[in-house]
Amino acid sequence: MSSLIACLFLLISGFIDLHAPVSQSDSLQIQLDTTTIPQQKASVLLTLARTQQESNPQLAIQHYEEVLLLAQEMGDNNLIVSTYNEIGAAWYFDGDLQNSMKYYFMALDGLKDIESNYSQFCKIYNNIAWNFQKQKDFIRALDYYNMSEEYCRRSSQSAYVAHILNNKGVVYKDLKQYDKALSLLQQSLEINRQNEDIKKELFNINNIGVIYLELGNYKEADQYFLEALRSNMERNDHYEATHNMTNLGQSYYLQGRYKEAEDTLKHALKLSEVNRSTDQKHEALDYLYQVKREQKDYKEALTYYTQYHALEDSLYKHGQYTDLIELEAKYKVAQKERVIQESNNQLLRQRYLNTMFLSALIFALLLIGVLIWIYSTKKRNERKLISLNKEIDAQNEKIQSINHNLEQTINKRTKQIQEQNNQLREFAFMNSHNIRRPLSNVLGLLALLEDENDPEKIKELVFLANQTASEMDQIIQDVNIQLKEGEL
Q1: Is the CB of residue 216 less than 8 Å from the CB of residue 231?
Q2: What enzyme category does the UniProt record give (predicted)?
Q3: Rounded to an integer, what distance in angstroms lies between the CA atom of residue 289 and that of residue 284?
Q4: Nearest to 442 by CA among 470, 409, 415, 417
Q5: What is residue 215's DSSP assignment?
Q6: How far is Cα of residue 298 from the mean position of the Cα atoms in its chain?
Q7: How many Å from the N-terminal Cα to the C-terminal Cα in the chain?
Q8: Residue 273: which residues within 8 A CB-CB, separation 6 or more?
Q9: Measured between alpha carbons, how far is 192 from 169 in angstroms, rounded to an integer?
Q10: 336-484: CATH number
Q11: Are 28 and 44 in contact, with CB atoms under 8 Å apart?
Q12: d(Cα 124, Cα 104) in Å, to the nearest integer?
């Protein structure tokens, strides 16, 4: 075992001297300088930022912000969301959980218009859960991991599901529910082996070792840690190798193997500095302080203690967790307000549609009513017109009949009048002589009376005048009788 550990430390020293990531960064920088196409430039910047995310998070954030600008110029909302998520992860590695959470929630806000992007929801909820787990708020962490797992399964990407199962296993380990933790980690391990994802497989192996360590099964724990450490060194994964080494050093410390624990933790500390991982350095210093205190080397223990608390202040800024909860609460309130606003908008739209429908219905009913009224009026007018036409026809017939009768009557009356006129002319002609004769006699007798002085002659003349007058009167009575009897 000691020779194996010595070989591992020798390999680690080789890691530190090689500085492999520098050449990779230089290569990516050359590509970046020679690329003008926005999509390609964004891709190179993302790769460059990811290589520096754990070792130099501030530099990674700068690269991510450049990607964000390019994504906004291109109008690529998916890239904007994923970049917010990456920036949140970089702030996490820098130890600023508040900024980290802020960018995760910004990413969630960006997803409100693309809710079918299950893989992004899966990643972001996982990262939020990890932040709460870091603060030992395991209940919140599990809530977000469960949401993350739901979206991961919807995305049909088994690698994501395995990752969430691993993280949930770690939470249950922290809650001391070891059977549940081991079950989840074994499920994750099986999926990663099926996917041949060696890096995630080594995560599972390391975490299973941690559970056995907490259960006091140090021998089995050491086997898991050494297996993971050996594979990570072969893969040149400095960051994960540091985790394995720190866990192994902790196991040695708990077993009372202080010298081995010190050597292992010092190598872990040195490797964390190469990684520029403040979080890993913080953990290594904590265990080194405990080891040196057990060895009663209080001076060196105090040095480690001082460094540990200096990092404690930078990693967990005062009030940061409270701000984290406040940020989460604000996001949830904003989400609820957005849901309420959307519901109100939908209600307003529905009311508008209902109003429009009701208006259209009323208009249609009015139109139908008007059309019915017009039709009824037209039919009524047609009936009236037909009735009037019939009346006119009847009147015309009557008029024609009257005209015909009138014509006959006029003809008849005209004929009668002509006949009467003829009779009158005849009567007048006939009677003018009958009346003229006695009248002429009376006039003659009156003329004689004027010149006559003899009474006897006058008496005789008066007598004759009376007779003549009586004769004329008889003629006139005969004419009246004829007139009354309708002879004329």
Answers
A1: no
A2: transferase
A3: 9
A4: 470
A5: T
A6: 66
A7: 174
A8: 281
A9: 15
A10: 1.10.287.130
A11: yes
A12: 6
CA–CA separation, 86 and 64 (whole Å): 7
Specify the pLDDT at position 312: 67
Provide the whole-model pTM: 0.60
Taking the domains of the chain in order of start, what are their residue ranges?
A: 336-484
pLDDT digits (tens, 9 = 90+) for 238-249: 889 999 999 999
Which amino acid does the sequence have at 157? Q
Q: Show the tokens assigned to 376.
A: 């009824």
- Torsion sign, CA atoms 107, 109, 113, 117: positive
d(CA 404, CA 410): 10
Structure tokens that stand for 324 in this block: 């984290």
On whether the CB atoms of residues 263 and 233 are closer than 8 A, the answer is no
> Which DSSP string corresponds to 292-312?
HHHTT-HHHHHHHHHHHHHHH
Angle 77-28-157 from CA coordinates, rounded to 5° = 45
- Rounded to an integer, what distance in angstroms lies between the CA atom of residue 365 and that of residue 388? 33
Quick: pLDDT tens for 112-122: 766 678 989 99
Cβ neighbours around 77 below 10 Å, total: 15
For 250-265, write each residue's pLDDT tens digit.
Answer: 999 999 999 999 999 9
Residue with tokens 């004027």: 450
**Burial class of residue 50 in the structure, from the number of CB atoms within 10 Å of its CB (0-12 exposed, 13-18 middle, 19+ buried):** middle
pLDDT tens profile 12-71: 555 444 444 445 666 666 666 667 788 888 888 888 888 888 778 898 899 899 988 988
* Burial tier of 180 (Cβ tally within 10 Å: 0-12, 13-18, 19+): middle
Alpha carbons within 13 angstroms on the beta-carbon side of residue 160 total 23
Q: Which residues contact 28 (CB under 8 A, 6 or more apart)?
A: 44, 47, 48, 51
Distance of alpha carbon 199 from alpha carbon 388, whole angstroms:
103
Residue 409 CB: number of other CB atoms within 10 A? 11
Q: What is the pLDDT of residue 225?
A: 95
